[in-house]
Amino acid sequence: MSDFEQDVVPVDGGEVTITCIGHGTLMFEYNGMVIHVDPVGTEADYSKLPKADIVLITHDHYDHLDPEAMKVIRNTGTEVVDTPASHEKAKGTVTLKNGESATVKGIKVEAVAAYNTSPGRDAYHPKGRDNGYILTLGGKRFYIAADTEDTPEMKALSNIHVAFLPVNQPYTMTTAQAVTAAKAFRPQILYPYHYGDTNVREIVEGLKREKNIEVRIRNLQ
User: Domain range spanning residue 157?
Assistant: First the structure.
């Protein structure tokens, strides 16, 4: 996994290793467990990555849900959390609607609404279809927003330690929206992801006076 940037985040009783695979694709390792988020074969050779204990699928777009990659990382014990709209393709074991939660292999998983709010963009990600997710790992909350704008549901979040916010146009947030959202729910660590050609340094600049929000730029185009 030397090709991917990794960060280690201390949590109660241990640590979480975050592997920044690319675009919307991530991997978390915690307490001997492996959690893959939106695995896609164009972002990684999954035969060289560890099998999944848990897979999170945010929605069924090709750059977030790759059935072939799923076949490689899935085994008989893998739990797949999906959405109603992605269930046929993802073949999940746990299906969550916006606002629902479940405990999966001892880990709390919360589904947060992910959708476009700007006029004319709702065709990309309509309200009620897609999920972002919050994982509680070692007492800390990790938020993967998925493809969304700065929704009221996002701004109302609290106690988020790490957040991944998407900033590629025209499908997700502008950098200004990401700054506004971060100031509202105040994650301790913010990763811009799914950002394409966006100048994510604008987020660093927009939050430079927010002493309690650390922006980390990683290769997640």
Answer: 5-215
